[in-house]
Design brief:
Radius of gyration: 22 Å
Distance between the termini: 39 Å
Shape: globular
Oligomer: single chain
Strand content: 15-25%
Largest sheet: 4 strands, mixed
Length: 390
């Protein structure tokens, strides 16, 4: 396989530390957490003490001020182990990034040190029952009342929803202004009127708490506004490439992992008097997936490099997310088939990887949205203006 060149020696050393932590503190307990539907808060504190949370947060806010590749290492090691429960990605890659990019000095000092330590868990509140990919259509309202805002509405599919201490919440401060009426706020979970709904039952990623959140006449000070009033949609758009890149990193990692599992299994399993690996069908299936996995990894690593350089184009991020997500689902399906009946048993990691995989075509922007983004750029470059909705 083409050698990965984006990591330096310090990243490799850190990876070994992360792998030991995952093997010691997560893997032995993950099956129970899937039954519980949530990971314990103690895990967050342990991860914070080990330096696994918010690696890029500067030292002045309690972090280590490391580069983005340290966060990548944490995400890869979680996904390589099949640990889909800990919601570190949302906390680290999105919530902390929003605060660093758009928060006031007071907001950063209040929340970032606690996020680094795991004392405060962050969540992102955007999706609503009737508004998924179309963020302009949200209905959660924030109405100014003197020096405060009063918030009413609801969100759904919120990762870390049962555990979060605060949520970066997308609201409408001007219902008639479309995208220009969207404003972001930091809303603490201990405020009167904040209610957690049920922990949603999913087909996969069962250990990650995913919730409905309700907001009823929640009063927050205007100083909780993140960024400027009416600029929320524009701020969210600046983070979509990073969110989609994270999804690509996840899928590229899982594809490589399930291939390793399958090569090991087919090399050991005997069928009709010979090893499963000796059948041409097995060899051809795995050779095909290996080739695609290599393409996915090279493209994803290039996108990581571009992101670090501040040059990752939203369309490139969309292509990375689309290609790796589709390959992710293809790989877990093809590999499970080679495990036969055992692949359908949840005691085998391939079975859990299969049910965890389906969300990747939806999370971070659906495959259809990715294709629309890519197509629009293609036709725009040709001088043809696509009709709205086309």
């Amino acid at each position: 396989m083409i050698e990965r060149t984006i990591f330096r020696e310090e990243h490799h050393i850190f990876r070994q530390s992360v792998r030991r932590f995952v093997d010691r503190e997560i893997v032995p307990f993950h099956a129970q957490w899937e039954k519980d539907g949530v990971v314990p808060r103690e895990l967050w504190l342990k991860a914070g003490a080990e330096g696994l949370l918010c690696c890029t947060v500067p030292e002045q806010y309690g972090g280590m001020g490391l580069d983005y590749l340290f966060d990548v290492v944490v995400f890869e090691e979680l996904w390589r182990s099949g640990a889909s429960g800990p919601g570190f990605l949302i906390h680290t890659d999105l919530v902390a990034t929003y605060l660093l990019s758009f928060g006031t000095e007071a907001q950063k000092r209040q929340w970032l040190p606690k996020m680094v330590s795991g004392e405060a868990i962050g969540s992102l509140g955007m999706t609503e029952p009737h508004a998924g990919s179309d963020l302009k259509a949200i209905r959660t309202r924030a109405v100014r009342d003197g020096d405060d805002f009063v918030i009413n509405g609801q969100k759904v599919f919120i990762s870390n929803g049962q555990l979060c201490d605060f949520v970066v919440l997308a609201t409408k401060t001007d219902g008639s202004a479309g995208a220009k009426g969207v404003t972001l706020f930091i809303v603490e979970s201990n405020r009167p009127g904040f209610a957690r709904g049920r922990n949603l039952e999913k087909i996969g990623m069962k250990a990650q708490d995913t919730s409905e959140l309700f907001f009823e006449n929640i009063r927050i000070p205007a100083t909780n506004m993140l960024g400027q009033e009416g600029k929320g949609f524009a701020l969210m758009m600046t983070k979509l490439s990073q969110e989609r890149l994270a999804q690509a990193i996840r899928s590229a990692t899982v594809v490589e992992t399930v291939l390793d599992w399958t090569v090991e299994y087919t090399s050991d399993r005997s069928v009709f008097g010979q090893k499963l690996a000796n059948f041409q069908n097995t060899q051809f299936k795995l050779a095909d997936l290996k080739t695609k996995a290599t393409v996915a990894r090279v493209f994803t690593d290039r996108c990581i490099s571009l992101f670090i350089e501040g040059k990752l184009d939203p369309v490139d991020a969309a292509m990375a997310k689309m290609f790796t997500s589709e390959l992710h689902c293809e790989a877990v399906d093809e590999c499970l088939q080679l495990f036969g009946g055992w692949g359908y048993m949840t005691e085998y990691p391939i079975a859990r990887a299969y049910v965890d995989a389906r969300i990747v075509k939806i999370a971070g922007g659906s495959i259809e949205i990715m294709k629309t983004i890519i197509a629009r750029q293609m036709f725009a470059q040709s001088g043809f203006a696509l009709a709205k909705g086309g």
